[in-house]
Amino acid sequence: MTRQDATPLLEVRDVAKSFSAVAAVRGCSFPLYPGEVHALVGENGAGKSTIVKMLAGVHQPDTGTLLVSGEEAAFAGPADAKAAGIAVIYQEPTLFPDLSVAENIAMGRQPRGRFGAIDRGRVRREAAELFSRLGVRIDPERPARGLSIADQQIVEIAKAIGGSASVLIMDEPTAALSAVEVERLFAVVRTLRDEGAAVLFISHRFEEITELCERVTIMRDGAHVSTDLVRDLTVDEMVRRMVGRDLDALFPKQDVEPGAVVLEVEDLSREGVFRDVSFTVRAGEIVALAGLVGSGRSEVVQAVFGVDGRDSGAVRVNGKRVRPGDPRSAMAAGMALVPEDRRQQGLVMDLSIQRNVTLPRAGALARLGLLGGGGERREAGRWTERLRTRYGRLTDPVGTLSGGNQQKVVLAKWLSTSPRVLIVDEPTRGIDVGTKAEVHRLMSTLAAEGVAVLMVSSELPEVLGMADRVLVMREGRIAADIPRPRATEESIMFAAMGQEANT
């Protein structure tokens, strides 16, 4: 019997959901078959999160039907979805940090021994058996506090299958993982698939979809576009259906003749993190810092901007030294930093969109010491419009925006300062392909206007597509300086791993 002949473990049939006058999902249908990994893709705001919340019982459909093993189901809340065998693995797991791994897995269904006491030995044994079944090695007795994001996700998966979940929904599970951690997660997912589970996998990374998934459902503007076998679609066709248009290019790099040196980093060192790091970035040039996780890329740019201290070395902008450990000095010199973690370091989530955009220029916009709404609104409106940001009102909390639009607000916040040097750390992590193209186009435009751009990225296609030069870091040092004509995935990875490339 083929999977198409099997009864879906879960089926979404013509489901719609609105919030006030906004139609978040309309007419969406797709099946989740046993023994299959099914991708759900779409731009930020396409309706993916609303679908996940309906499957998890957080929201109820306005119209349409959910079917579990062919039978119509209605989830009044998350407990109903869990009882139906549906589990959601979120990008940022929510374990109890002071409990052990085994206690987290058994939470809500602890086995009891004599006299009704929790059988802690059985709790540990069952956790160990689940990890063995998944092919991973995690100590069941260690506290959850301090676990990596990757290990936390594995614990959440063990918790789900320990609770007899047959449908797993994985929402951007690889966004914060290294390549090695992604491979381990994929091995776990394949194990679950081979045991007959249905997995709904949400990702913006097409290489993951083509490697892991058998089927893909594409959404656009809340509506179902198509459901097909992955092998029947090219990446270009998936992108075209997602955004509703042909992208001119995902990496619209303009050819710019670099000008004078704007940013100069000389012999920057911090004990145990990086040492003797020297490089320059010229006006109109995009320089990428590449390398494996742990190579020191983000730590270098944090020290350049002054967020972190340094033991020695100098940073100059247009020939003038920037004081170490002093972001205000860096900003005064014309530097801007778009950090890797936009939620924790780039935005104040409870403040409005317009207040976040204008934070760096609050003093300049104030009149008699007071920040007026009119000036703030005009400044924020100008930059959000330029970056094509989607929002309801500028006074809405920035936390209500999708991840891609939050990233645009962070960019707007710093671009409003008219920087001479723009440092961007993982500029497109966790955002959809359409927004990626817009961010890349913006970076290219800024370079053409004479801004010096320093970019940290773990995505080699992004590095190759956007950088004029690639600085490869390995073990805290610059291992290679590769110009654009000679930059390839092989040359970058050989340098990152300390190997000589074969000619």
From TrEMBL:
GO terms for molecular function: ATP binding; ATP hydrolysis activity. Keywords: ATP-binding, Cell membrane, Membrane, Nucleotide-binding, Repeat, Sugar transport, Translocase, Transport. One of its GO terms (cellular component) is plasma membrane. Gene3D superfamilies: P-loop containing nucleotide triphosphate hydrolases. Residues 10-246, 256-500 form the ABC transporter domain. InterPro entries: AAA+_ATPase, ABC_carbohydrate_import_ATPase, ABC_transporter-like_ATP-bd, ABC_transporter-like_CS, P-loop_NTPase. It is found in: Cell membrane. It comes from the Bacteria. Pfam families: ABC_tran (PF00005). It is a peripheral membrane protein. This is D-xylose ABC transporter ATP-binding protein. It comes from Actinophytocola xanthii.
